[in-house]
Every structure is written in C-alpha cells, then in structure tokens.
Amino acid sequence: MASGKKRSSKKEPLEFRNTALTDALQTQDMAAVAFALRHGPTVVPLMKPGQRDDPLDAGEVWTYRDPSTGDLALLLFSDAAHKPATLPPAVALQSPAWLRAFLSTHEREITTVFFDIAGPHPLQASPADIIAALDA
Q1: CA–CA separation, 40 and 91 (whole Å)
Q2: CB 59 within 8 A of CB 89
Q3: In a domain, 9, yes or no
Q4: Cα angle vertex 21, ends 106, 93, to 5°?
Q5: pLDDT in tens, 74-121
Q6: Which of 7, 66, 124, 127 has the least CB density, counted as fewest CB within 10 Å?
Q7: Is the dihedral angle over the CA atoms 27, 28, 32, 37 positive or is it negative?
Q8: In the predicted model, what is the mean pLDDT of the chain?
Q9: Domain count within the chain
Q10: 38: number of CA atoms within 13 Å, CB side?
Q11: Looking at residue 26, which CATH number applies to its domain?
Q12: Is residue 10 part of a domain?
C-alpha cells in the first residue's frame, strides 16, 4: 500500500560558477571576458543573504573599502571556489542584467571591480569598462 508521500526528486545542486568566465580569465582575453559576462552569471559575495521566500530579495552585496584611501571595490568571482575564505561565506549567482543594474547604480562609489582577486587568474577593471562590456 502506498504511504501517500511523494518521493522527492533529487535535483542537481546549483553550481556557483561561470565556466566561460573562468576560461576567459585564464587566457586574459578581454573579448571572451566580455562575452562571458554578457551570457552567464557572476558569483557575488554577500554580507547578508536574501530571504528564500522573496525572489526580489537578492541579499546585501559585500564590497571592500580600502581603509587608507576610502576607495570602494566590488569583488566578483567566476567560481565560488575562487572566493577567499576570509570573505563572508554567503554568495549569490547574479545575472548579467543584475550586474549591469548594480554597476550603473553604484558607478560613482565603486572605483574598481576585481574578478577572482585571489586567483588563479585575477583581473581588474573599472565599472565603466564592465558596463561597456555588458552593453557591447
């Protein structure tokens, strides 16, 4: 006799990575980086994760402020495995549209954007350069 319980289907775990971005950073090919940013997600560290029941709550993005200059940097990752353990543990997988909107909103405050800052293949760009790559 059936127990009335539905068997839960095993879902593949969500992968917090953009393989195309990882590959583009490895070769430092700026055209490939731009393509990967336009067509795939970016791993974003969070101070506070969003509410699971609210799809509009993306959480609070973690940024780095240099204590000596006050400059604000946005750290992004091609793979959650590249995020240093010293950063807050929560991450979000954000779309190209989200990245474009976030950078547009905070372009005056953010002085630089780092990709995979701790390696294996870091890249630094200005918010304006990232916006231009997303718009290309």
Answers
A1: 16
A2: no
A3: no
A4: 55
A5: 999 999 999 999 999 999 999 999 999 999 999 999 999 999 999 999
A6: 7
A7: positive
A8: 89
A9: 1
A10: 13
A11: 3.40.1350
A12: no
Which ranges in 62-135 belong to alpha helices (H)? 96-106, 127-135
Q: Residue 14 domain-assigned? A: no
- Assess whether pLDDT exceeds 70 at residue 1: no
Alpha helices in the chain (DSSP H): 19-27, 30-39, 96-106, 127-135
User: Residue 69 and residue 53: Cα distance in Å, rounded?
Assistant: 39
Distance CA(74)–CA(61), nearest Å, equals 9
Cis-peptide, bond into residue 13, ω within 30° of zero: no
Domain membership of residue 119 (yes or no) is yes
Residue percentage of the chain with pLDDT more than 70 = 85
Give the pLDDT band of residue 12 (cuts 50, 70, 90): low
Q: Which residues have a Cβ under 8 Å from the Cβ of 103 and sit 6 or more positions away? A: 74, 110, 113, 127, 130, 131, 134
DSSP letter assigned to residue 82: G
Residues 62 and 64: their CA atoms lie apart, in Å, by 7
Token pair 């989200």 is found at 98
